[in-house]
Amino acid sequence: MARQLRIWAAATGALALLGVVAGLLWAWTAPRSPYLIYQHKAWMAEPDGESLISADGHLAVIVVILGLLSGGVAYLLAGRRNDLALITGLATGGAAGSLVGWAIGHRFGLAAFEEAVRTAPDGTRVDGALSLGAHGVVLLWPLAALIVFGLLESLDVARRSAPSDVGDLRAREGDEIGGAQLDLEPAPPRRDVDGPGPLAP
C-alpha cells in the first residue's frame, strides 16, 4: 500500500511540475485581449471576444498534447502492480498540471495590466492578462492521459498479457498439469493394466 501511495504521489507531483511548462507555453503562444482604459477601468476593445476564445483554445491544445504524452509515458513505466496507482496519478496530476498552467499563464503580464488600469490616461489601449473562460479545459489533460493509457493497455502494446511460465522459467511439458508431474509410463507389454492377469497370446 505504501508503495502504491509513493507511485501516486510521484506521478501527481511530476505532472503538477509539468504544468509550469504548460503555463509558460500558454503565455508565450496565446493571443492577449486588448482593453481600453477609461476612468481607471478596463473595457474590452473587441467585444466579440475572439481573442478570449483563442486563448482558451491554445491552452486546450497544450494540455491535450501533454496529456497524450504523459499517458504514453505512464503506460511504458507501468506494470501489473502499478496500474491503479498510475491511473489515479494521471487523473489527479493531470488536473493539477492544468490548474498550475492556468495560474502561471494568467500571472504573466498581470502586474503590468493592473498598473496600466491604475495609472494610464483615458483612451489608453493595453493588452490584458490571459484568462480562461472555459473552465472545463482543465479536465482535458487527465482525460487525454487516461484515454491513451487505456488504449495502449487494451492493445497490450507492451505484451504484458502474454502467457509466461512459472517455477523454473521453462515451458511446461505436455505431461505437466498445474505444476504436478503425471505418471504417463506405458503399460508393460502383453499385460492388461485393468485386468488381473496376462493377456492371451
Strand arrangement in the largest pleated sheet: 2-1-3
Strand and helix order: HEEHHHEHEE
Backbone shape: elongated
Biggest pleated sheet: 3 strands, antiparallel
What's the number of structural domains? Answer: 1
Distance between the termini: 70 Å
Per DSSP, the total helix count is 5
Total strands: 5
Protein name: DUF2567 domain-containing protein
Region (Disordered): 163-201
Transmembrane segments: 7-28, 57-77, 84-104, 132-152
Keywords: Membrane, Transmembrane, Transmembrane helix
In a few lines, what is going on in this structure?
The protein has 201 residues and is mainly alpha-helical. The chain is built from 5 helices and 5 strands.
Report on this structure.
The protein has 201 residues and is mostly helical. The protein has one domain. It is 53% helix and 8% strand. It has five helices and five strands; from the N terminus they run H-E-E-H-H-H-E-H-E-E. The strands form two sheets. A three-stranded antiparallel sheet has the order 2-1-3, with helices on one face. A two-stranded antiparallel sheet has the order 4-5. Strand 4 (176-177) and strand 5 form a beta hairpin. Helix 1 (2-29) runs parallel beside helix 3, helix 2 (50-77) packs antiparallel against helix 3 and helix 3 packs antiparallel against helix 5 (140-155). It is elongated, with a radius of gyration of 32 Å. It starts with a helix and ends in a 20-residue tail after the last strand. Mean pLDDT is 82; it is low at 165-177.
